[in-house]
TrEMBL record:
It comes from Adiantum capillus-veneris (Maidenhair fern). The lineage of its organism: Eukaryota, Viridiplantae, Streptophyta, Embryophyta, Tracheophyta. Residues 132-329 form the O-methyltransferase C-terminal domain. One of its GO terms (molecular function) is O-methyltransferase activity. Residues 20-77 form the O-methyltransferase dimerisation domain. This is Uncharacterized protein.
């Protein structure tokens, strides 16, 4: 006789909301155990086989069974996470073999030995601790990261710049490859100034595609001093709210979301002063929020993460365009969207 099954969809949704945080920690464990690299080199494999290839000695006799549970999670999907990282196939008599799916490629190490996954999963504890203060952020202001750790997230990034530079370069490499495949707005720029460009890895990708282009990377003096070498790239230390080197193009990549509206307008007006000749454009590449009716849940989720951690503001495309208009640009254009990023142009006639 078949068992009676009674399932409540709403209850499963509630359980999902309260346990979804298991995913980033499971990914972090898989990275520490080198699971993605092992499957990339040797898969498909069972949990037992993976255990024999782990980077450190295994003393727990239950390790294969526990690893199997973790791999089951990374092989599962849900409405919130529709693209699992692993494929699981049942091999007789009752062993699961695991292999990588395309989503897992972002967790493989690049030529520099880093992966996007390391950056994302290592932020999990910081995010959890920061988001504990979300109610206080709403009622009292400020940001959760500062409430938890006593300083701004920008201070944390600067303190750990040596550790994060390689990972951020890896993230940028993936992003710029996708952006440059669909956006050609740098072709009419002679000198491009990247505002807040860290050590210059974003500009180097653009310079490599456009051999005519000259690049100026502006960041805080101690960061600019560590700038990456390139024959057409100059590093300048300074304060972006006070002065920006002259050029006919300015790039603001992932800058505006860190600032309130009035500060963004001030920064954009400073950018205007730097546009002395030529095409005279500011290219904005930044996270954007869809309208609520679009139902794009992952982006709304990211808006809460940003609000709760460092006080940033996720704007709609229309809100970004309003900033350009308030700063006095002649024309404001929404050019394209690449994943979670909107690309806009603010132009002067």
């Amino acid at each position: 006789m078949a068992p009676i099954v009674s399932e409540n969809a709403e209850w499963f949704s509630v359980l999902g909301y309260t346990t979804i945080m298991a995913y980033p920690f499971a990914i972090q464990a898989a990275l520490k155990l080198n699971v993605f690299e092992i499957l990339h080199q040797h898969g498909p494999l069972s949990a037992q086989q993976i255990t024999h290839l782990l980077p450190r000695p295994v003393s727990n006799p239950r390790a294969p069974a526990l690893l199997d549970r973790l791999l089951h999670l990374l092989s599962s999907s849900s409405p919130a996470l529709p693209h699992p990282l692993l494929a699981a196939s049942l091999s007789p008599p009752s062993t699961f073999l695991y292999s990588l799916l395309p989503s897992a490629e972002y967790f493989l190490k690049d030529a520099h030995g880093v992966s996007v996954g390391e950056y994302l999963s290592n932020r999990s504890i910081e995010l959890v601790n920061s988001l504990r203060h979300l109610d206080s952020v709403i009622v009292d202001g400020g940001d959760g990261f500062h409430k938890e750790f006593g300083h701004k997230v920008s201070h944390h990034i600067a303190e750990h710049a040596d550790k994060l530079d390689g990972v951020m370069a890896s993230v940028t490499a993936m992003l710029m490859k996708q952006i440059l495949a669909v956006y050609d707005g740098f072709k009419d720029v002679g000198t491009l100034v990247d505002v807040g460009g860290s050590t210059g890895y974003t500009l180097i990708h653009i310079l490599d595609k456009y051999p005519h282009l000259q690049g100026i990377n502006l960041d805080q003096p101690h960061i600019a001093a560590k700038g990456l070498p390139h024959p057409r790239l100059k590093h300048v230390g300074g304060n972006m709210l006070e002065s920006i080197p002259a050029g006919d193009g300015v790039l603001l990549k992932c800058v505006l979301h860190d600032w309130e509206d009035d500060e963004c307008v001030t920064l954009l007006q400073t950018c205007k002063k730097a546009l002395t000749s030529g095409c005279r454009k500011v290219v904005v590449v930044d996270f954007y929020a869809p309208d609520l009716v679009d139902g794009a849940v992952p982006k709304h989720h990211f808006a809460i993460v940003m609000m709760g951690t460092h006080g940033g503001k996720l704007r709609t495309v229309e809100e970004y365009m309003s900033l350009g208009q308030a700063a006095g640009f002649t024309e404001v254009k929404w050019v394209c969207v690449v994943n979670e990023y909107a690309v806009l142009e603010f132009l002067l006639s």
